[in-house]
Amino acid sequence: MTPYLTYNGNCREAMQFYCDRLGATLQMMMRIGDAPMADQIPADQHDRIMHARIQLNGLVLMASDAMSGFPWEGHKGFSLSLNPTDPAEAERLFAALADGGTVTMPLEKTFWARLFGTVTDRFGVPWMVNCE
After folding, report:
1. All CATH 3.10.180.10 domain ranges in the chain, comma separated
2. How many Cβ atoms are within 10 Å of 111's Cβ, its own excluded?
3. Please, which residues bridge with residue 82 across strands?
4. Coiled-coil intervals in this record (predicted)?
5. Would you tell me how many other CB atoms lie within 10 Å of the CB of residue 66?
6. Any alpha helices (H) in 3-61, and if so which ranges?
């Protein structure tokens, strides 16, 4: 299964952040204005992202912006989990996600992992960093 996130107009910024800060690779990003049916969509929606795909360590994350007329209710009821094997990499990833975000559980040793912590990034996406 591949997670697919919906953003409220800041999908491009989020995908670029994950590429810059986590080391993900942008595989594709299409604006609504570049789609074949763009003439049927209000011009103020053309810069929103219709579909984006990034990859990090073989894992894929897909995303888009909410379309006009569809209510956006935020990111709820899930967390994305990163599972580095190196504690230094876990600390780097956690710090990157925490920059402008909110730490909900500090990155620390637990009974199941060398390091574990939770953070909600600046885009409202909840993450777990679990270094076993």
Report:
1. 4-65
2. 5
3. 129
4. none
5. 15
6. 11-17
pTM value?
A: 0.91
User: Where in the chain are all domains bearing CATH 3.30.720.110?
Assistant: 80-131
List the CATH code of the domain at 4-65.
Answer: 3.10.180.10
Tokens of 76: 């709820």
Identify any residues that bridge with 6 across adjacent strands, giving them in sequence order: 64
The pLDDT score that the predictor gives to residue 39 is 84
Pairing of strands 49-56, 59-65: antiparallel
Q: How many CB atoms lie within 10 A of CB 23?
A: 13
Task: State in words which class domain 80-131 has.
Answer: alpha beta
What pLDDT, in 10s, does the model give residues 39-92? 888 788 888 999 999 999 999 999 999 987 778 888 999 999 999 999 999 999
Mean residue pLDDT of the chain comes to 94
